[in-house]
């Protein structure tokens, strides 16, 4: 076996990229292939929370909560450019409700013969009272133990510290802190950049093939483009299936027999700029629970408010998952129940999205009860006379714990290939976190100084900071060193054209849609102008990534995708 041959990683989401980074730290190269774009799936369609999983305490999943909180704290330290502490308020209607429900879930009473009818009756009233929630939050505070995330508090509805939820329905709010990551897609790109830098120092190439597929043929893995042409082939020492909700379909496409491993559920969110709702929650968030037991979040995301999520079974391929009118109406009604004095209509939805969670295939009473922990499935795959290789399929997991999953995978790879694993990323900064100014005043001072240094508006620096963190200085210096000017902007945006060109050169951009939605994060811009999209397409032409005669078609294809998959209008 060629020990320098890269491991094949299928999937360029949070798990696949985190695994590539962890392996690179141990001098193990990899090659990533994804049939879609980087961060295309659930990675870019989540609730964007970095959290310990408060509700998992009710299922006595202490291991997952402890691990999640440890990883949350690590991310706050190692990726401050992407994470911010977020105060969440839980509205509470009574003092005593929920004790029996909590006890039932804690001891898994539904699995005790004869008790299922009783647990179903209790689940018909899923409300949790003040004492149950405070008990959970005290335990959560004990596990959390971090100065960036203060301990919980309780406030009366109507007080200055409480959001203006319906006082006829709720008496208190319990407030606690977790984390929020708005630019998850940029976090994934930072992990890829770190992997590239690490492997470059070890003289290993690093290839990321988006919009490509893999076939196993004649003892090799072959990477095929959309025309079916082979662009890369080798015999990998191991294969890692990190395609998330596509996991079963990936195995089938490679003709690898396997039992069903995944039970995907769809989660939909919508985004609105309703000014009354924005005023009601300010910089905080609301965490409530629907009558079906599903958590509901009302969160500030940039200049928008995000409301989610649903948890429904899905049929068909995950890339076709859509937020239906029924789901959006459900989320609108939940928002109105919390804030009956705020009028919120479907017309005020700026856009929506729907992701598919890669949950494990296990029997459960409801999707919300399925563990959000992770597992690694092992199997041997024959490579046509070239011997067997181990294939690992990554099941479950979530944004918060992607690094911990990657560490587990690296240890498994080491055991399988007899390679000593000596490094981990627990204390490693993500690109853009170097020399980070942690106080708000020092951050503002640095951003103002850099705006002056590069002749940019402070708003431009702040916008670029959200994409790059402290890397923004190196990006801008590179642009100037290559003879670019920073004063020419993409129309109706704050993006210097030179920075867009840098992104096209360094961030594996496959199409205009990937540039707009997952590199520049323009899905969150309102209004989104066609003129901006045309200008970006023309920059791709200059970079020789798009033929000039295909500009109109590429723009129109993106406009249709935004409308059909996201409900986003282009003006």
Terminal CA distance reads 56 Å
Name the poorly predicted regions.
Answer: 102-110, 114-122
Largest sheet report:
10 strands, mixed
Compute the CA-based radius of gyration.
24 Å
Structural class of the secondary structure composition? Answer: alpha+beta
The beta-strand count equals 19
CATH architecture classification name of the largest domain: 2-Layer Sandwich
At the fold tier of CATH, the topology name of the largest domain is D-Amino Acid Oxidase, Chain A, domain 2
Mean pLDDT rating: 92
Instruction: Give the number of helices.
Output: 17
Which range best describes the helical content: under 10%, 10-25%, 25-40%, 40-55%, 55-70% or over 70%? 25-40%
Give the full name of the CATH homologous superfamily of the largest domain.
Answer: D-Amino Acid Oxidase, subunit A, domain 2
CATH class of the largest domain: Alpha Beta
Total count of domains: 3
| Percent in strands | 15-25%
What does the overall shape look like? globular
Helices, strands, pairings?
Layout: E1 7-10, H1 14-25, E2 30-34, E3 49-50, H2 62-78, E4 83-92, H3 99-106, H4 116-123, H5 130-144, E5 153-156, E6 172-181, H6 184-201, E7 207-210, E8 213-217, E9 220-224, E10 230-234, E11 238-241, H7 247-253, E12 265-272, H8 275-281, E13 285-289, E14 295-301, E15 304-308, E16 312-313, H9 325-338, E17 349-357, E18 374-382, E19 388-396, H10 402-417, H11 440-454, H12 458-468, H13 472-481, H14 497-506, H15 512-519, H16 530-542, H17 551-566
Parallel strand pairs: 1-2, 1-11, 2-7, 4-13, 11-19
Antiparallel strand pairs: 3-6, 4-6, 5-6, 8-9, 9-10, 12-15, 12-16, 12-17, 13-14, 14-15, 18-19
GO biological process, one term: glycerol-3-phosphate catabolic process
Enzyme class: oxidoreductase
Domain Alpha-glycerophosphate oxidase C-terminal: 430-541
